[in-house]
Amino acid sequence: MPRYLSIVHIDESTAPAGPSEELMQRMGRLIEEVTKAGVMLETAGLTPAVQGTTVRWQGGKLSVTDGPFTESKEVVGGYAIMQCKDKAEAVEWTKRFLKVHEDYWTVSCEVREIAEA
Is 59 left (phi over 0), alpha (psi -120 to 50) or beta? Predict the structure, then answer.
């Protein structure tokens, strides 16, 4: 079965204190369900963008920039690797993930199939 990467994009300004305890509980229940279904292979959240570093190759030169990254409103906040029968199933699980968030969050996921060698 194909594997899919769900890349979580968040607007950190909509949830400056991070996830609430209630959100973490709902997330935990969903992760347990998707894991028991044999779909979830790996998932994790990421530290805030202010703690990140970008290493860029451009014009034959390397540059290193520490966060925060003011040029970006949305940042990658986490990811999930799922094994699903098709992209439609991966999208359905991703929709369920988004729905556990409170209304004040601005969060989206990019779902892409992982290319196999």
Answer: left
